[in-house]
What does this fold into?
Amino acid sequence: MWPILLCLGGGIVLGCVLKMSDSQRVLNGRLQFTGIMLLLFSMGISIGMNESIIFDMFKISGQAFTFAVLCTLFSVIMVYTMSSYKERRDHRR
Amino acid sequence: MMTVCIFAAVTIGAVAGYLFIPESFMASVNSSTTMVLCFLVFLVGLEIGSNRAILRQVKGQGGFLIIIPICTIMGSLFGGVLSGIILRLPMNLSLSISSGLGWSSLSGVLLTQLDSAEMGAVAFLSNVFRMVLTVIFIPIIAKYLNDYTTIAPAAATSMDTTLPVISQNTRPEIVPISLLNGVLLSTLVPILVPFFYSL
It folds into this structure.
């Protein structure tokens, strides 16, 4: 956890101090894309090497769908509750 | 296009892992993954820190801006706890999966490293499904609920992948709020996933 937090914090501080030009932003975007693809490829390798995951893909998809639906649903309920309260308050003013 | 590349990278990796790559190779893959992950998170931090336009927009919007990301996180965590109870998964793992907040690639890789390839796959797929649900439901949410609520399902993707869908279906003033929400949640994903897993 700590190496990740340090890298994130270091990046934010350096980003605040340095002014990135447009070409540097583009380069940053490309490097991020390459990094993400490499990581996803290695994640794919870990999945492929584990036969139980391949055979349990139906169960894994079901678990993932449950998380997706419930997390999305409760985020919507929470934000809707707060934002409709704000809109009612603004309307009264 | 990005979604196609994401699926292609995972699928090609899975096929290669299943058919060609020897198990002895996996240790070197794991150690290089950590380095690439740290470098990637550093680049994300660099992008967030250098984005001054967001900071200017924040100053003009007031305190309500922070309420949307907080509610999005709270809702996701509550949904994660409920999913964990239904699926009989440990609470720390459920909270960790739900704090991926739509960032499929990072949360999948983090959970693979922290727990197992199986839980990495669950985290990855749950966030891919979340993105699909977001794209489907944003027009309905904008029509029947309100514009602010369209940001909730998008979570961390509200600054990139799902931003065009949000801007098409809502008022123009929602876009900076959506951007800020995405930046804040993207900053928090690499912090929250390992934090909840360590509980």
Chain B touches chain A through 94 residues (CB under 8 Å). Residues 48-197 of chain B form one domain. Chain B has one domain: 48-197. Chain B has a mean pLDDT of 84.
